[in-house]
């Protein structure tokens, strides 16, 4: 009798195992689907970061003369690339920033292309801040030293 009792107890254990494997299989499939859906949302539907503003009109300013060191001067013409949603921009802030940046500068430093680009980048950053992001880029239309 003991062998029959052992067989009966062994049979229910083997009957319980296939449903556990089936439940595990369903759980794994469900997890894979959830992870796949999350990854799909992350790569396809997530909100993107800040977008670059669209360029609008280019505002050309009248050239100005700026006194440099050692009696030299700089004739500087500027054009500002505004964003498409820029309000009416007044060029006086840009001219003031350019005068502050270039006045008293050494002429030999200004004729170096690398130094000129550094100063231009510095002016762009200042104008981006002063115009609250409405100025995207600065162009030199004139740059003459004497």
Automatic annotation (TrEMBL):
Its main location: membrane. InterPro entries: FliL. It comes from the Bacteria. Pfam families: FliL. The chain crosses the membrane at residues 26-45. The keyword Membrane applies. One of its GO terms (biological process) is bacterial-type flagellum-dependent swarming motility. It is a single-pass membrane protein. Keywords: Cell membrane, Cell projection, Chemotaxis, Cilium, Flagellar rotation, Flagellum, Membrane, Transmembrane, Transmembrane helix. It is found in: Cell membrane. Residues 1-21 are annotated as: Disordered. GO terms for cellular component: bacterial-type flagellum basal body; plasma membrane. The keyword S-adenosyl-L-methionine does not apply. Controls the rotational direction of flagella during chemotaxis. Belongs to the FliL family. This is Flagellar protein FliL. It comes from Nocardioides oleivorans.
């Amino acid at each position: 009798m003991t062998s029959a009792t052992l067989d009966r107890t062994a049979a229910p254990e083997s009957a319980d195992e296939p449903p556990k494997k089936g439940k595990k299989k369903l759980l794994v499939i469900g997890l894979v689907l959830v992870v796949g859906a999350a990854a799909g949302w992350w790569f396809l539907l997530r909100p993107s970061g800040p977008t670059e503003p669209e360029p609008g009109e280019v505002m050309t300013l009248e050239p100005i003369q700026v006194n440099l060191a050692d009696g030299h001067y700089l004739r500087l013409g500027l054009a500002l690339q505004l964003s498409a949603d820029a309000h009416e921009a007044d060029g006086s802030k840009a001219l003031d920033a350019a005068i502050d940046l270039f006045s008293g500068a050494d002429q030999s430093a200004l004729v170096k292309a690398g130094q000129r680009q550094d100063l231009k980048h510095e002016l762009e950053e200042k104008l981006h801040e002063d115009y609250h992001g409405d100025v995207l880029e600065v162009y030199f239309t004139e740059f003459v030293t004497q």
